[in-house]
Write a structure and sequence with these properties.
This protein has about 300 residues and is of the alpha/beta class. Helices cover about 50% and strands about 10% of the residues. It folds into two domains: about 1-115 and about 180-300, P-loop containing nucleotide triphosphate hydrolases (Rossmann fold); about 120-175, Histone, subunit A. It has helices spanning about 10-25, 75-90, 105-110, 120-135, 135-145, 145-150, 160-170, 175-180, 200-215, 220-225, 240-250, 255-280, 290-300, and strands at about 1-5, 30-35, 60, 95-100, 190-195, 285. The protein has a six-stranded parallel β-sheet, with helices on both faces. The protein is globular.
Amino acid sequence: MVAVVGATGTGKSAWALSLVEKLAEESVSAEIVNADAMQLYRGMDIGTAKLSVQDRRGIVHHLFDVWEVSVEATVASYQALARACIREIQSRGVIPILVGGSGLYISSVLYEFEFPGTNPAIRAGLEARLATEGPQALQAELAAKDPLAAAAIDPKNSRRLIRALEVIEITGKPFGAGLDAERRSWQESTRIFGLERPREELVVDLDQRVVTMWETGLLDEVRGLIPQGIESGVTASKAIGYHQALSVLRGEMEQKEAVEQTQALTRRFARRQVSWFRRDDSITWINPFDDGALAASVRTILSA
């Protein structure tokens, strides 16, 4: 199994396509499995930088457009979907290439991480604290108890904050323990490649990408998703760019402010992604524009 990870805007999708093509030159077949949480949603295309079918170069892609925008996403449900997909691909003698930047989603597949159930009493207590103390208090507690999870979770994502603290309370272990501390690989011979770019270059490109998304129809895309239930979607409605577009459509925010907020949140998200993946010393870091690194990656896969 192969994984291609890294921050948003580092060119993971395009690099993975090139990797599949290089493997094909060696008579090795590979297919791509999506590990971007928001690209799992049907109709969320522009704001997630989802490759169109035409841009996939005829390469088979899995786990795109599998959920309606009204569905609440969970890491546990994604883990089940992705592992079933990977097993099916491998059963045909094909290499699955997991591609994305959603740290928890990727780690849930690569490592032996088990998801505990819920405890209504603990969750109710945390929700009450959220209402009275605010998300900052929960974020501070999570940072003290589990810095890894705190680095991965958006402080504005109250649902994820509550879930992380709930798991810590139930298990007595850090939420990220199974993802970082034990590092028990789900499959042997897994190769993980991380794409990295200089921060100053990445920030410029991310800001421009947000502008381009708005110029090429993000607002119309979100308007079309309202009848599909995006406003009631616990996960989809909070996605970066989509939440801001909904605010514009409701008259709660001007578009200029929405674009600037989307840019700031995207930059912050990229920092969290880098922080998450940098903790994994099994990742081979490469420059996505280095053809030599691509060739070396192919050799590494073939030697597994």
